[in-house]
Amino acid sequence: MLRAFYIGILGILFLILTNFLGLTLETSIIGIGVFSFIILGLYLFDLMNFDVPKYSIRNYLTVIGLNFIFFFIWFFISWDFWLIIFFVLFATITIFLRTLINISVYRIKPVTIYGSGELKFNLEKSLEKLEGYSYIDFNDNIDQLESFVKTNNIRLLLLGKIKLEEKEIEKILKIKLRNTHVMGYLDYMLEIEKKVEVSYINEEWLLNAYGFEILRSKFQNKVKRVFDIGMSIIIGALTFPIMIIAAIIVKIESPGPIIYSQDRVGENEKEFPVYKFRSMRQDAEKDGAKWAQKNDPRVTKFGNFMRKTRVDELPQLLNVIRGDMSFIGPRPERMVFIKELEKQIPYYGLRHMVKPGLTGWAQVMYPYGATVEDAKNKLEYDLYYIKCYSLYLDIVILFKTLKTVVFGKGR
Fold it and tell me: Which residues cross the membrane (predicted)?
């Protein structure tokens, strides 16, 4: 909401400056494109975050740099010297507005945890990464909790226990009714970490959990299908020259097919062939199927580049158009690995309730990994996506994927 507000105010001020300085219609149309690229740049460089205590000099210089680059392009096209004044004013407004919003909304919230053991450790580890929270440790004595919350002005009480005793419920409810926000462990992981902790859920939780609309809403599925086809056509058209160049380099670099297919598991555990630009040597699996690794020696030099930039995944646009895959969803895995993972990870099969995707929530939220524990962590993000699906979430993932591609963090 804050980002939308920030973009909206900047857009209004951009139009006001355009009219005030008397820029022509043709120049204004170019300016709209420049404005769009500036906003995209602010997002890609994490310059629209309002949950940090302060911004560094580097942040401000990046804002000025982005404005300068795109306004220089605009000036080079139009040669309108009013744009120099325009650049100074708009760059100043961009910095001033984001600083003003940050000062207005940023507040440090004292937080504590009731509970112990692994759940408390997981919550403490998560809080270390969050800006805006001041963690105050509590000794886990329920009789002292109320006075502790009052003395330390605790605004958020996290529960590091899945099940509470009757006495605990009575005490914590009293605290909650006195204007302290109380959040359970699973709710915290869902709302803050944006994942479903599979180690602590059960069939009863799945039965009572809200969401999962994508599994039964025909309307949402139709909207998603339109989004899939539209994005596949647009991305396919924009990247077609890149695909031609990639195909030529793959052919030149090492012997073997340019594109190879591999059976993966899709919706309802139905197998289908996934298409990719070949990024490994032709004999990569002569000794059988193996997990992909970081710095995998089987990967060619250009294959490594394609993986980082996701270029190797582009042929899967055909899978999306055919309906085997969605543009966004859990990444499809091979049956040989799934059989093993289902034995070790609870509810792993739930990720096959929807179509797999070319990119997904797990891919933009979790770093590279090729272990069972990594597969478990990715499943938790995949289940969040299935539970909380919306077109808005798809768009968020699309932009996060763009950021991943731009900064070469693909895998």
Answer: 5-23, 29-48, 60-77, 83-101, 226-250
